Amino acid sequence: xxxxxxKKTHHASYKWxxxxxxxxxxxxxxAASTPLSTGRxxxxxxxxxxxxxxxxxxxxxxxxxxxxxxxxxxxxxxxSILNERxxxxxxxxxxxxxxxxxxPFTENVPEQVWAWTAATQERGNTxxxxxxxxxxxxxxxxxxxxxxxxxxxxxxxxxxxxxSLLNDYYSNLLDCSCNGxxxxxxxxxxxxxxxxxxxLVGHFDLSPQPGRWGHQNLSSISSLCWSRDGRALxxxxxxxxxxxxxxxxxxxxxxLSSHMSVVRALAWKQQLLSSGSVLGRIHHHDLRAPEPLVGxxxxxxxxxxxxxxxGNDWLASGSTDxxxxxxxxxxxxxxxxxxxxxxxxxxxxxGWCPWQRKMIATGGGWKDRELRIWDxxxxxxxxxxxxxxxxxxxxxxxxxRRLVTGHGLxxxxxxxxxxxxxSLSQSYHLTGHSLRVLHLALNPVGTQIFSAGADQCLxxxxx
Length: 463
What we know:
Structural class: mainly beta
Oligomer: single chain
Strand order of the largest sheet: 3-9-8-7-6
Largest sheet: 5 strands, antiparallel
Strand content: 35-45%
Low-confidence stretches: 6-10, 24-110, 121-126, 209-216
Helix content: 10-25%
Shape: globular
Number of strands: 32
C-alpha cells in the first residue's frame, strides 16, 4: 500500500475511533483519560487546557539549567505527563461522572485488595540477619545500613534502607504518629516502624491485579497522614482514592473515591479529614457520616500542601504556582480564601508554628531557595532567610522551639533554625544524605528527626 493510502486509512480509523468515544462519552459520562469534549457532563469552566496546566507537577529539574530554557523544559515535561496518563488510565477501567449535584463519584472502579503483612511473617528479617554486602546490594525496607553507638551532633545515629521511595518533590510520604510510629510509603506499600523499640512492625501492601497494565503506577502512594490520636492512618493514592486504616486492628475502615486525580496532601481537624488533589480540589470528609463528603473548595492552581492550624481555626493550602491560601474553618460556608500570599516557587514545604498560632513558615523551591515566616493576619512576611538551596520539606519542633528544613542541591542537608520573632538564625547542619531530603518527621517529644531522601535512605538524628 502506498504511503498516501496508509495516511488515509489511519485518518479514517482515527475519525471512527474519535466518533465512537464521543458517542459513548455523551451517553455515559466522561472517561478520565479521554481529552475530548463531553458536552453537558463537564463542569462549567472545566476545560482540557486548564487541566493540562494543572498537571505540570513533575519534580523540578535535577540539574540547574539557564533560565531562558525553563519554558521549553516545562512544555516537554507537561507533554510527557499527558502521554503517560493517557497510556496508564484505560477508560474501561475508570469512569467518572459528574451528576447534577456537582460532586464527582466513581462508577465501575476496580476493587483494590490491600493486605497486611506482619514483620514476623516476612522472609529473613534483614534488620537482624544477612551479610552487610547483601543488605547494601539488595536492601529490604528498614534494613540497617549504618548505626552508631554514640550520638554526635550533625551525624545520624541510624541509617535505614528505603528502597522504592519515590523521588517526587510534590509527594508527602513520611509521617510520625503521636505514639512514635513511623509510616513510610515505598511504591504501593506503606511500612510501619516503631521508633521507640526501633523495630519494623509490618506493612500494608496493595495486591497486584493481573491484566491491568499500568496498575502499579496508578496504585502507588502519593500522600499519607496519621490521625491526631495515632489510631488511624490515612493514605492517598495516585488514582484518586483515599484509604483509612485502623492500625491497631490492621483493618481498612473506609475507602473514599471523591477525587478525580492524584491525592497530593491530607490534613486532620479532629474527626474531619481534608484532602487536596493536583487539580486544586479540596474536599472535607466527616468519616462518621454515611455520606462523608461534607464540604469542598477549589483553588485555580494545583495543590501540593495542606495543613490545619494548631487551633483548627484556619486551613492553609499551598499551590504549585507559589500561592499560599488561608481558608477559614467554615467548610460549608464561603468557598474563597480569606488571605492569599505569594512566593516565587511552589509552596510544598509548609508548616504552622505551634506556639505562634498566626504564623506559618514556607520554603522555596530551586528557583527561590528562600525560607519565609508569614503573619497570616496581616498577610505579610515577617522574616526570611536565603538558604542557597532547594527547600523540600519543613517541620516545627515545638519542645525545642526550633524549625527544621530539608534541602536539595547543592548539599542535600538538614538545617535546624532558631526563631525568636523576628530573628531567624541557623543553629546547626545535619549531613548524611547523598540526594535531596524529600520528607521530614519528628518524634512526639521532639528529640529525634526522621528524614527520607531521594537516595532511598531513612536517617534518624538526635537533636
